[in-house]
Design brief:
36% of the residues lie in helices and 12% in strands. The protein is of the alpha/beta class.
């Protein structure tokens, strides 16, 4: 197994790079892409950039009618399909249809997410943030695996977050059944799980030419914040008393850039299992580094990734056919 290091490449891009900028000179004609949650926020800009470069993009969303309206202005080969990440039968129906109709999948971008919501459980009794953000995507990638392996060189991009630093995954009580629920701890665990998923998938998928990356898109004001009261957003410094967004936040197109870079950049050829931010590989965080940058060790720990993988197989009933 090839191992790679959490060391910045000096990509030439940065925090303010826009999604279309990282695609300069890249032709995605003939490439099939699936983006979850690609009808709003950074997902919409991800779809716009990839379709603009020639890719055939399928957007998997809970509300296809609303997605059709949002995506009406996006040119290129874009199709919309129904899928609910908290419903295993919905995931299976989408994935089975995609594999049978397309056969090959070059890029999967696990973009959809929920953040800091009140305690909610799916039909299986699993905590919603861990269920939607991690377990649903774990099952989706497993069901799409035949198409990914058939590509002869595919990439999977899992959207993590700086929120991963809040908490490592809790494999003993992942669904807050024995401890008080905390919406931010739950979000942190789910985002740490997203990064660990990329580590685990990359380690297992290299033989089939499938590489995986996780990304922190940056702070972006989108509907991801829909569960947060305005007062809480002000207290965290995201907006001021007049509702003006903190200038440190990125635009949605800038926020989509790292996902697009991880999905397509030739600079990442031969690499994988890495956490990326600002269109580059992130540094492994060490004491003395700024708190808001880099990746914490618990989010890229291979041993912890293996344990999470085993738990995820059990909880989703999904076994990849590596």
């Amino acid at each position: 197994m090839t191992t790679t290091q959490q060391t910045p490449l000096g990509s030439g891009f940065g925090a303010r790079t826009a999604a279309h900028d990282v695609l300069a000179g890249i032709d995605l004609t003939g490439r099939n892409v699936v983006v979850t949650g690609g009808a709003s926020g950074i997902g919409l800009e991800t779809v716009r950039a990839l379709a603009g470069a020639g890719a055939a993009v399928t957007v998997a969303v809970r509300r296809p009618d609303a997605a059709a309206e949002a995506l009406a202005s996006v040119g290129g080969l874009v199709s919309i399909a129904s899928m609910d990440l908290q419903d295993q039968s919905s995931i299976d129906a989408f994935a089975d249809s995609y594999v049978s109709s397309h056969g090959v999948l070059h890029v999967l971008i696990n973009n959809a997410a929920i953040m800091a919501c009140p305690l909610t459980r799916d039909a299986e009794g699993r905590e919603a943030q861990f269920s939607a953000n991690h377990l649903g995507h774990f099952r989706l990638a497993g069901r799409l695996w035949p198409a990914l392996a058939a590509a002869g060189g595919a990439r999977v991009v899992a959207l993590s977050s700086i929120g991963h630093r809040i908490s490592p995954v809790d494999l003993d009580d992942p669904h807050f059944e024995r401890q008080p629920y905390d919406k931010w701890v739950a979000y942190g665990r789910a985002k740490a799980a997203n990064a660990l998923f990329a580590v685990g998938l990359d380690a297992r998928g290299q033989g089939a030419g499938v590489r995986a990356f996780s990304v922190h898109p940056g702070g972006i004001m989108t509907n991801l914040q829909r569960h947060l009261p305005i007062e809480e957003q002000r207290a965290m410094g995201w907006i001021d008393e007049n509702g003006v967004v903190n200038p440190m936040f990125k635009t949605p197109e800038q926020g989509a850039a790292t996902s697009v870079w991880a999905a397509t950049s030739p600079q990442l050829q031969g690499l994988g299992g890495l956490y990326c931010e600002d269109c580059d590989v992130a540094a492994l965080w060490q004491e003395g580094m700024p708190q808001w940058g880099g990746v914490r060790a618990h989010a890229v720990d291979p041993a912890l990734s293996d344990r999470l993988w085993e738990l995820s197989e059990v909880q989703t009933g999904t076994n990849y056919s590596f």
